[in-house]
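in:
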């Protein structure tokens, strides 16, 4: 009987497969079939390995923590995007406060109403 050569997968490929399973896109078995992984327990092993389990033969908690996979580039990009959007939101709120203060000062100094009242109707010519 001829022995088959073991298949080696890159860390990037393993991370992609584990992410798809953790995000709920596929079950472990679906991911194994979709990506053409021959070993039946490879995906489970990778999940345990990425979770920090040293002894993969011991039972593991099925609630694999997504935060453990901090080396994931996509996750880091999303965190940077969230931080950038939060900063833009903070700046927009500061600008809105500034504009409101400018209108308040202008109304008090000039004695005119700048803001329209809600429900106000136009003057008829």
């Amino acid at each position: 009987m001829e022995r088959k050569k073991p298949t080696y997968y890159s860390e990037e490929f393993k991370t992609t497969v584990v992410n798809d399973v953790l995000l709920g896109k596929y079950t472990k078995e679906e991911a194994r079939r979709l990506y053409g992984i021959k070993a039946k327990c490879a995906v489970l092993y990778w999940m345990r390995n990425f979770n920090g389990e040293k002894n993969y033969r011991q039972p593991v908690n099925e609630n694999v923590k997504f935060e453990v996979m901090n080396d994931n580039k996509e996750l880091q990009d999303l965190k940077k995007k969230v931080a950038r959007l939060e900063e833009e939101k903070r700046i927009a709120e500061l600008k809105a406060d500034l504009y409101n203060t400018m209108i308040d000062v202008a109304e008090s100094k000039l004695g005119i109403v700048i803001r329209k009242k809600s429900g106000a109707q136009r003057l008829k010519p």
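note: DSSP finds four helices and no strands in the chain.
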